[in-house]
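Why run this: before we spend reagent on co-expression, it is cheaper to look at a predicted model of the complex and decide which construct boundaries make sense. The entries below are exactly what would go into the expression plan.
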Amino acid sequence: MVIRTGPVTIPTAVIKRLPMYYRYLADLDRKGISRISSRELSQIMDITSSQLRQDLSYFGEFGQQGFGYRVEDLYGAICTIIGIENIYPTVLIGAGNLGKAIAKYPGFRRRGIELVGIFDLPDKAGEEIEGIPVYPVNILQSFLLENIVRLGIITTPAESAQQLANELVKGGVSGIWNFAPIPVFVPDDVVAENIHIGDSLLSLLFKIKHKENNELAPN
Amino acid sequence: MVIRTGPVTIPTAVIKRLPMYYRYLADLDRKGISRISSRELSQIMDITSSQLRQDLSYFGEFGQQGFGYRVEDLYGAICTIIGIENIYPTVLIGAGNLGKAIAKYPGFRRRGIELVGIFDLPDKAGEEIEGIPVYPVNILQSFLLENIVRLGIITTPAESAQQLANELVKGGVSGIWNFAPIPVFVPDDVVAENIHIGDSLLSLLFKIKHKENNELAPN
DNA sequence: TAGATTGTTAATCGATTAACAATC
DNA sequence: TAGATTGTTAATCGATTAACAATC
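The model came back. Tokens follow.
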């Protein structure tokens, strides 16, 4: 098994599929399946086997002719490619319902996220969520100075999102996972993933509306 | 202004961008901007003006040569195209943190969602969330018989998701918005939107990891 | 060895962009 | 009218699929 290291340009379409590979391989591994061919896996994932092999080829050679892939190995390779093996010390800003839901998300730890602090307005400070203390947001700056934090999660209302993103950037995070209903902007050396929950709802409504007509490309 | 009605096949790439058009146009309209050219709007949205005009052309003619688009009209057209003007009576299953967060999502009503019932295990029944009563989930079936419900939202743990989806389908919903950390499967005449929250986290981690290397196609 | 399946090349398909005639 | 900007066609670019030699 060879994991390619050089500076190959990965197509964005391939990058978007990496989490899907992770999910299905994690599931197969959990189920104790040790070996799978590109044909079998592609059927489970509802893609073509060509696409599966083509995608993997951007990262290296993970299979064996006439045999297929060892699930555990391929799963490990995908984890390495995505970068899950690293630990990401993370702060969560916003201890409302959404913040709590995210803090309790079962896949969190598995993906390398280690929650080190939760922040909210002073009246919520002192609580604990999943064993992590809730601090008043006015100490966020100094907290970020004293602790190495790689990732910030924002689950606040729209109004405060951008300012908090600025503070996170100033505090040295590498990425921001933003759930506020407004996108936040960050400098080029920081990655922001703005989740537009309303977008997926609109997609759903559109598909419902156009289901009967043949206005939808088969997908 | 002409809205195309015939059975044109809309490319999936265009469909995926509709919510983005909705979001930006809603914002411009809210700000009181009444007129915009494809060049200006495309700059705000960080796409090309060609793409913007090409996308809109699948649905009709909404602009005026030498003038541009009236924001209000174009916004209204996008709403019609997506189908937001309809009302979608909706049930929410799962009154935990995520369920509560979704019930309180400010863009909910604006997109035509009308919450008519919330369901959870019997010990949570009797509560009210956003003025909507929480019913025990064992009466879901009869509730769906007595009420017209077009959309079901699932925010339960993985274990119960598929069974609840089955009940929703049996109860006649047209769509399911699923936040359980496992995809649900539905018959062809029902639309399911499975939200994989973990996927967006993995994308973020991948981008953080590969930021420095030139392994990412510029995007 | 014979059968199976990979990794990769080439062909096809779809999406994006450039360019411009039409026209407000 | 002159300037601006649309809607659309054609060219380019990128992503997917088919096919197969290499090989376990």
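Chain A is about 40% helix and 20% strand. Chain A touches chain B through 64 residues (CB under 8 Å). Bring this page to Monday's planning discussion.
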